[in-house]
Amino acid sequence: VTAPETRAFEADVSKLLHMMVHSVYSDRDVFLRELISNAADACEKLRYEAISNPALLGDDPQARISLTLDKEAGTLVIEDNGIGMTAADMAETLGTIARSGTKAFMDKLAADKDGEGQQLIGQFGVGFYSAFMVAGKVEVVSRRAGEADAATWSSDGLGTYTIAPADPEAAPARGTRVTLHLLDDAKTYAERYTVERIVKAQSGHVPVPIFLHEAGSADEPRQVADGIALWTRAKSDISEDDYADFYRSVAGQFDKPALTLHYRAEGRHEYSVLTFIPETKPFDLFDPDRKGRIKLYVRRVFITDEAEILPRYLRFVRGLVDSADLALNMSREMIQDSPVLSAIQKGVSNRILSELAKLAASDPERYAAIWENFGPVIKEGLYEDYERRDQLLGLARFKSTTSNGTWRSLKDYMGSLKENQTAIYYATGNDLDRIAQSPQIEGFKARGIEVLLLPDQVDSFWTTMGVDYEGKPFKSVTQGAADLSLIPLAEGSSSAAAPSEEASSFIAFAKDALADHVSDVRISDRLTSSAVCIVAAENAMDLQLEKMLASAGR
Ligand code: ADP
Ligand code: MG
């Protein structure tokens, strides 16, 4: 730009901003975490680009974030010496909704009928625009590393923003300065006490040091976060709170980790791993791209979060891997194809699964809470990851006709097999209670045979893949003539009587009348109190799967 230009925000941004401006959300502190994390990201991007172009660092190689408070002016300034933005970068990233998280937030908001959008802000962390929760005006002055020109972006958050050339003298030599003109009811964010507290609580573990300075004070800026990568510290020096804070900043989550895994792999390949399983479902869990969010570092330099270190069915795991053997000057594409990365992918995936198995054995309740959230995702692995299928079946938990709402493992199931039972029986559907009531399982109940109740979409897929467990195949109760006659009825139950003459003539009549619609009509051992039920033919598609495919237009 050569002259100031005022532009309208993208429609979605306007909606989001409206929400921020009118926010009555109580935990406004999160805006600072968002801005600090952007500043830290910018420093990490520079560090990465400087590997191939060291000149970008100039005479200022040490990454830094500084916060300047001005009580008189009512401003809070967040400045970094990271990668910076050109005017074009600003128009692209600060006028649109670039990040998928924010998109997901908007979708959620659109679907939100009960006006709980305010709560959603806290769950999502909505990035840069959250500044408008506390500021009536936001100014961004930035200079992209290696560029001569600097630019200014400013907005009051009411529909338009302005981009203009910035005075090169007054702009940062490199990086970005964000100035928040605080709202009257947000002046506390110009106070040292408040800001220091928030930084320590939310951003104490970003990998860039943070300094705090008060305008008009003769004191040296004080360091409020040391910027030392948490994962490089000894486990014994890290508290649970440290891990939780780090988790929130690395994962962009606001909850706590349900499981933390921190270790160093040594031997053929050396790398550190710090990963977390969230306590609640991340909003992007069922995004169509099914992308993972594990960050890849090479000797403390952030490289990419697109390395797909874990299989997609573990995409809920957050955190990072820091490799000591990958070459820093490898391109991201070369890293993707490197054998070192494959070894890391394999090692970390196996370790996470084995940690889950350990937890399942040592603390079934905590494990059940994880399964409750992520079981439907992990089960995708049953059809995607043939090699680890047995391991995954070991981790799987199910509700069943005999479990009274508790989770059962397949091992539990095997322990309650009836004499002559040749298969693991299951019933699929959309709703647990409805499945439990379905007439197809009456005959099983009457014989005390446990039937797994599978309410998730994914269940209709993996069950058709010829899966077996310890030699017993999975068999849908809707498929074929379940051979129940060999298994005696439980005491006190009655089944349909042996075919009487009346029954036989009814069957002949029904076959005739329904000839165009069904392939067979027969007396069934499945039913005890219902008169009829529809089943799929042996080897035919499971009914639930058939319904799903039909509704998907197949
Ligand atoms: P996210 O950080 O998830 O991408 P944000 O809304 O927080 O989403 O930021 C949007 C984009 O604005 C960033 O991706 C980045 O490109 C740009 N940006 C924001 N702050 C900075 C900064 N301090 N330095 C460089 N770029 C920035
Ligand atoms: Mg951000």
What would you say this structure looks like, in words?
The protein is 33% helix and 19% strand. The protein has 18 helices and 19 strands. It has helices spanning 11-21, 30-52, 87-93, 100-111, 117-124, 192-203, 240-251, 332-336, 339-362, 364-378, 381-384, 389-395, 410-415, 432-437, 442-446, 459-462, 501-513, 543-551; strands spanning 5-8, 65-70, 75-80, 135-143, 151-155, 160-165, 175-182, 210-214, 222-225, 257-265, 271-278, 293-298, 301-304, 318-323, 399-400, 424-428, 451-454, 468-469, 472-476. The strands form three sheets. It has a nine-stranded mixed sheet. Strand 18 and strand 19 (472-476) form a beta hairpin. The longest helix has 24 residues, at 339-362. Residues 1-332 are annotated as: A.
List the topology elements.
Layout: E1 5-8, H1 11-21, H2 30-52, E2 65-70, E3 75-80, H3 87-93, H4 100-111, H5 117-124, E4 135-143, E5 151-155, E6 160-165, E7 175-182, H6 192-203, E8 210-214, E9 222-225, H7 240-251, E10 257-265, E11 271-278, E12 293-298, E13 301-304, E14 318-323, H8 332-336, H9 339-362, H10 364-378, H11 381-384, H12 389-395, E15 399-400, H13 410-415, E16 424-428, H14 432-437, H15 442-446, E17 451-454, H16 459-462, E18 468-469, E19 472-476, H17 501-513, H18 543-551
The site of magnesium ion (MG) has 4 residues, from helix 2.
